[in-house]
């Protein structure tokens, strides 16, 4: 744990924290002193590795399985955390998938499953934590969207629609919850090296990144940690912070 421990005493849930960006966010929040709930869908061993790593460096964490695309599963997850930890201070809506394909050939199932997890899952989790956050008059919700939700992307109409939807959801919930002491922001990564991007042809993408390199999960985690921090980010809500090496400038 760092000496600053700015999130000491706070409980954070990170959806999809067994791998990639979610894992880096979990480690980073724990390093800042938060107790972290490491949610996963399939990768039990990987989730346990994240928990063990946090515990080995003096932090506090536990893993919970839940399918974020399923409302019953999400409600069980949130209720379990409220029982075990007593409160939820920070929710990071990170879990996401891709099912790429040209729109003309895209199956309805591939459209629907991406919308179900990447957009409706954010709605389920936000709704499920809202009651307890409103009651405690305090909370931080950080949604992981994508630059693709801002600029669109051929072959990713399902993913781009979901991520654009997350931006609308972020701004709407920020307005609804502002008077209750809850901030809602989004982080929009560009191209980050994880399992999600390992099959993509990266060479043409690299040319579109002014900083000349791909992002790491730690780049995204640092921004998420900043948005979770008090007082540094307490006056920021309804914003979309791009972590993309300058790839998309509007
Ligand atoms: P990743 O490496 O593929 O990891 C995905 C994570 O989501 C895993 O922990 C996985 O859990 C979890 N997950 C998948 N389906 C789930 C479900 N139904 N319920 C709960 N958890 C589920 O992906 P990533 O690159 O780290 O992406 C993380 C987030 O960043 C996503 O929202 C993604 O859209 C966004 N993003 C990524 C990039 C990029 O370049 N990588 C860019 C922009 C935005 P299991 O291991 O248990 O399957």
What is the element layout, followed by pairings?
Blueprint: E1 11-14, H1 20-31, E2 35-40, H2 44-56, E3 60-65, H3 71-85, E4 90-93, H4 108-136, E5 139-144, H5 148-151, H6 157-177, E6 182-189, H7 203-207, H8 217-228, E7 240-243
Parallel strand pairs: 1-2, 1-4, 2-3, 4-5, 5-6, 6-7
Helix pairs in contact: 1-2, 1-8, 3-4, 4-6
The structure holds NADP nicotinamide-adenine-dinucleotide phosphate (NAP).
Structure description:
This protein is α/β, with parallel strands linked by helices. It has a single domain, classed as NAD(P)-binding Rossmann-like Domain (Rossmann fold, 3-Layer(aba) Sandwich). 44% of the residues lie in helices and 15% in strands. A 7-stranded parallel sheet has the order 3-2-1-4-5-6-7, with helices on both faces. It is globular and about 45 Å long. The model has no long low-confidence stretch (mean pLDDT 97). NADP nicotinamide-adenine-dinucleotide phosphate (NAP) binds next to helix 1 and strand 2.
